[in-house]
């Protein structure tokens, strides 16, 4: 990112002395004596260093509270917490590993289940460094580029809203900034925002976005910070082998007529999450029956350490630890979490770290797939 510095305008005044060339008519001027010594110029002021870009300073707490206030009669006090939605959680973990910024706050009682009546609401603010050139508008629920925008501080932010929440996406300086509000019953009856005028809530979100955009634009070029991980070289093309070998994945899936296929991101990213996936060199091994991916395993080499992010508040609401009894002594850390409510019809998610590799597992048998990866690794 580039630090914003005020432009200095230097004006120079030039006085022109016109000599009267009438020497015969004008008496000679008296000797003026020695020229006075000019006073030394004061030293130039040092530029004020840009503030570090972090979750405490990216936007004032009062604006976060205003955006999450909803229809509550008393002022709210947001707490740092992460919403246990896997499709946002895994990209957030990768983003932190890449040296980006992912901030999240909650008000209310927390999220027991997405559709349960509750007063929970989460505000998320994420920054992907040096990605403004990759920015694309948000996608609609039909998968088409959104044509909705919000003009905020001179920046046209892409905007989308619906039952899942309200989202802003914009290129800011050199970076890509994402802002989202999630809440129970946001566009339906019930929940914290029942009876709140939609225009008022958008104005509050606009204020958060404008403050964040200003902070990001003014941050030093090396902010948010260096990557936390060392990206590893991958096979080209990617290969599902070792812990991801087909026999274990197929057995764990229970599919009688399926195969394991591999894919990796190609072409320009079509979303914020896709841009993160490309940076992280993510690749996917899927158990497919030729029509549907029954199980998917997304792998990021070098990101195993970010599993520590599962200590964030609220994640225990959505995920529980997996105990692995078959890990040999001295094998290194093996840590896994599985979604608490894995649906027999729609499946669920698990996150696994083995050494420096991080896996996001989604499907009907996420815990069984995680165990198969561990078994085949050792």
TrEMBL record:
Signal sequence, start to end? 1-29
Sequence ranges of Pro residues compositional bias: 28-50
Write out the ranges of the annotated region (Disordered): 28-56
Q: Carries keyword Signal?
A: yes
Q: Which UniProt keywords are given for this protein, alphabetically ordered?
A: Signal
Q: What's the superkingdom here?
A: Bacteria
Q: What is this protein called?
A: Uncharacterized protein
Q: What is the lineage of its organism?
A: Bacteria, Bacillati, Actinomycetota, Actinomycetes, Micrococcales
């Amino acid at each position: 990112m580039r630090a914003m510095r005020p432009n200095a305008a230097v004006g120079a005044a030039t006085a022109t002395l016109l000599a009267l060339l009438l020497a015969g008519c004008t008496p000679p001027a008296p000797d003026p004596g020695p020229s006075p010594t000019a006073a030394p110029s004061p030293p130039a002021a040092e530029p004020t260093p840009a503030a570090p870009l972090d979750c405490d300073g990216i936007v004032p707490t009062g604006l976060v509270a205003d955006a999450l206030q909803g229809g509550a009669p008393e002022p709210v006090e947001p707490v740092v917490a992460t919403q246990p939605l896997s499709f946002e959680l895994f990209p957030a973990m990768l983003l932190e590993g890449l040296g980006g910024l992912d901030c999240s706050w909650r008000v209310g009682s927390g999220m027991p289940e997405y559709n349960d009546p509750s007063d929970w609401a989460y505000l998320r603010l994420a920054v992907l460094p040096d990605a403004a050139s990759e920015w694309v508008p948000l996608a609609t629920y039909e998968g088409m580029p959104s044509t909705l925008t919000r003009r905020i501080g001179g920046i046209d932010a892409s905007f989308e809203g619906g039952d899942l929440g309200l989202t802003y996406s914009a290129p800011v300086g050199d970076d890509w900034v994402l802002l989202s509000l999630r809440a129970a019953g946001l566009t339906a009856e019930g929940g914290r925002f029942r009876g709140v005028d939609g225009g008022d809530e958008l104005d509050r979100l606009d204020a958060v976005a404008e403050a964040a955009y200003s902070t990001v634009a003014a941050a030093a070029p090396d902010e948010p910070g260096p990557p936390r991980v060392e990206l590893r070289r991958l096979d080209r093309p990617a290969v599902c082998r070792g812990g991801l070998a087909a026999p274990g994945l197929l057995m764990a899936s229970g599919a009688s007529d399926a195969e394991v296929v591999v894919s990796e991101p190609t072409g320009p990213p079509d979303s914020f999450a896709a841009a993160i996936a490309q940076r992280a060199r993510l690749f996917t091994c899927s158990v497919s029956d030729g029509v549907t991916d029954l199980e998917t395993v997304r792998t990021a080499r070098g990101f195993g350490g970010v599993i520590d992010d599962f200590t964030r508040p609220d994640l225990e609401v959505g995920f529980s630890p997996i105990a692995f009894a078959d890990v040999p002594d001295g094998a290194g850390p093996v840590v896994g979490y599985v979604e608490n409510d894995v649906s027999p019809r729609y499946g669920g998610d698990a996150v696994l770290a083995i050494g420096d590799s991080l896996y996001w597992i989604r499907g009907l048998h996420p815990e069984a797939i995680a165990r198969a990866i561990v078994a085949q690794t050792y």
